[in-house]
Each structure stands twice: as structure tokens, then as C-alpha cells.
Design a protein that fits this description.
About 35% of the residues lie in helices and about 20% in strands. By secondary structure, the chain is of the alpha/beta class. The strands form two sheets. The chain has a seven-stranded mixed beta sheet with strand order 3-2-1-4-6-5-12, with helices on both faces. A five-stranded mixed beta sheet has the order 9-8-7-10-11, sandwiched between helices. A hairpin with a 2-residue loop joins β2 and β3.
């Protein structure tokens, strides 16, 4: 039996869970108030605070760190790496502390995990990090050489459900062509070929979502930016966290939209259909990359719990391939199952090398 501690830091909380093999034994969401966080000017300033919070929670649960075979942390936003497992090492800690791609709460996971196991021989891992990049170079090209399409997305949940589909159908992931759409506060739609995510449409160039504006008419966006004299930070906030559902209906909960529809609101019904069509169109964009040879389309994420929405999306895209729905975001379980495969010898963990110059050494960890 392998016992794992899972650590998943968010901006205002730290989720932890204890797994014994594939079974979740305990879970707790440790919420951090604004008062507790107000004195930390940078994300990494929170390491000691978060470590103590996790230690105290483990004490209350009756565990000490030496009770675990491994610690698994949500992967942070580091320079592009392969999908799968990475064993946390000094290079990764240096990268997260000194030169991450961006400052995000998930960067804390590996660092807090390493602090917790200091002085023991327990290993810390990350799995399917946001920074994973397997996109084919040709698919990153845009009409301006200065701009490239991003490979970032909800890799953890997307890949876990692709692996699940392959297993349930008696196949290896490398033998499946799959399109997986993660639908939550943001969205990512990924194409699997030969076991890799060779293309992904994220919420920079994809559908609008509960919080994201998604792809926008470029000329109109430029005019809005210039005419309203919106600064970069305000524009970024508007399209990344105040777009989509929030911009139209001041809610980021799909259930609120569905309630309006049930009450006879025709505008809300039209809006929700536009949401479904946007998702379907972006699923369709990926099929030509594998010349239409798609084995299945998978809908996952929190909003995939909506039967009416998944039915409407399926109606649009089922001509491409059969549709399977795996509702919910099973991040903690996905982290646990990934590292169990490593500990049981089914997968091998990669080694991270620090990147000093993003431009020059961009692909160091994915070669």
C-alpha cells in the first residue's frame, strides 16, 4: 500500500488530501483569509505560512510527514516541460523561486512539499503541470512572427480523462486520437495523437467561458483598447476574469443561467446556445489536424455536469466522433493516480533542468 499526500495550492486556499493507493482517505480545503495573506507581497513569501498550515492540518488528521511514501504537488507555471511526472529537484525549486514563467499560487506546491519533507528521504513530485508543452511547432505559428499560440491549458484533468478513456476501452493512450474539452471557469480543448497533446485551444483563442472572454474580434479589441484608453492590466483583467458569463449576467455559475432559461428567459437561452456553439466550433477546429480521424470526443470539467449543455454540444460534434462525458474536475485524484503509476513502475519520472534564458533554452525540458 502506498500512502500519498496531495497538495494543491490556490490563490486563497490550499487543498490537501491523503490517498492510500487509489482510495482517497481524507481531504480538506484550508481557506486563507485576506487578513492572513495581506502582508505577503509576493507568492513565494507565503511558503512558510502555507507549510505550517499544512503541518497543522496533518497533525489534526493524525499524520506526520514520515507516514507518507511520497508527496504530490500541483505543478506550477515553469518553462515548458513534458506531460507526466517530474521529481522535484533543486533546479525546479530554483526556477519556481527565482524565474517562473509567471507568478501563480500553484508555484507554491513543489516548494511547500520540499520544505515539508526536508531531512527525510521522501520524494516530492509534480504531475501534468500547466507548463507542459507537446504542441507541434507548426501549430504554434500565427500571422505575426512575434506571436505564438500558447500550449498552456488544464493539462492535469484533460490528460487524466484521456488516460481513463483509453483504459476503459482496452487501449493505450498512444493508440487513440482524442479531443478532450475541459469546461470550467476557463476552458481548454486538447487534441491527443500518439499519446501526446499535439494541439490545444485555450481560453486565449478559444470559446468564452464563465469568466473568460475567449477569442475576440481583433480589430474591435484594438479599437476598444485605444478608444477607451484601457491600460494593459485593466484590459487583461477584463478579458481574463470579467468576461463571458460575468460580462453578460454578472455570474460565473452556469446553474444561474440555466435557472433563467427554466423561467422562460429567451435571451439567456440564446446566450447559452452561443456558449455551446462556441465550444463545438473549437472542438471542430482540431479534427483537421488528424485529418478527421478522431476516436472520441470527451467533455469534462465542472460545467460538463450540465446535461442540457453537453447534449447540445454533442448534437453539434457527434458527426466527428462519439462523445463521452466525464463530468467534474478530479484534480486531487488525477495527481494521486499519476504518481501511483510512477511508484508502481508503469511510468518514469522526468528530470527538470533550470532555464536561465527562456528565449534561448525554451525547449530544454521537452527535448
Amino acid at each position: 500500500m502506498k500512502r500519498l499526500l496531495i497538495i494543491n495550492p490556490g490563490s486563497t486556499s490550499t487543498k490537501i488530501a491523503v490517498f492510500e493507493d487509489e482510495k482517497e482517505i481524507k481531504r480538506e480545503e484550508l481557506v486563507h483569509s485576506q487578513e492572513e495573506l495581506k502582508d505577503f507581497s509576493a507568492i513565494m513569501d507565503q511558503v512558510d505560512f502555507r507549510k505550517e498550515v499544512v503541518k497543522n492540518a496533518l497533525d489534526k488528521m493524525g499524520y506526520k510527514i514520515t507516514d507518507f511514501d511520497a508527496v504530490v504537488a500541483r505543478g506550477g507555471v515553469i518553462p515548458p516541460i513534458k506531460t507526466g511526472a517530474y521529481k522535484v529537484n533543486d533546479d525546479m525549486i530554483w526556477q519556481l523561486k527565482n524565474k517562473p514563467v509567471s507568478n501563480h499560487a500553484s508555484n507554491l506546491g513543489a516548494v511547500v512539499g520540499s520544505e515539508l519533507v526536508a531531512g527525510t528521504d521522501i520524494s516530492v513530485y509534480i504531475y501534468d503541470a500547466v507548463g507542459a508543452d507537446e504542441m507541434l511547432p507548426i501549430l504554434k505559428m500565427t500571422g505575426l512572427p512575434e506571436l505564438k499560440r500558447s500550449s498552456q491549458g488544464h493539462n492535469l484533468n484533460i490528460r487524466a480523462n484521456a488516460i481513463r478513456y483509453a483504459k476503459e476501452h482496452g487501449k493505450e493512450l498512444k493508440d487513440c486520437n482524442l479531443i478532450v474539452a475541459h469546461l470550467g471557469g476557463g476552458a481548454s480543448i486538447a487534441l491527443f495523437n500518439n499519446g501526446r497533446i499535439i494541439d490545444i485551444i485555450n481560453d486565449e483563442d478559444g470559446p468564452f467561458t464563465p469568466e473568460r472572454a475567449g477569442a475576440l474580434p481583433m480589430v474591435q479589441l484594438c479599437r476598444l483598447f485605444l478608444d477607451e484608453k484601457i491600460d494593459h492590466e485593466a484590459l487583461f483583467k477584463r478579458i481574463r476574469s470579467h468576461g463571458g458569463f460575468l460580462a453578460y449576467y454578472n455570474t460565473n455559475d452556469a446553474r444561474d443561467i440555466e435557472k433563467m432559461i427554466d423561467e422562460g428567459d429567451e435571451k439567456a437561452k440564446e446566450f447559452y446556445s452561443a456558449f455551446a456553439i462556441n465550444i463545438a466550433k473549437n472542438i471542430g477546429k482540431l479534427a483537421p489536424v488528424v485529418k478527421g480521424k478522431v476516436d472520441a470526443i470527451i467533455l469534462t470539467g465542472g460545467i460538463a455536469r450540465s446535461k442540457s449543455l453537453t447534449a447540445e454540444i454533442s448534437d453539434y460534434v457527434s458527426y466527428i466522433a462519439p462523445v463521452t462525458v466525464y463530468a467534474g474536475e478530479n484534480e486531487m485524484q488525477s495527481l494521486a493516480l499519476g504518481i501511483l503509476r510512477v511508484l508502481n513502475g508503469q511510468e518514469e519520472a522526468h528530470t527538470f533542468e533550470k532555464v536561465l534564458d527562456f528565449e534561448k533554452d525554451y525547449e530544454k525540458n521537452i527535448r
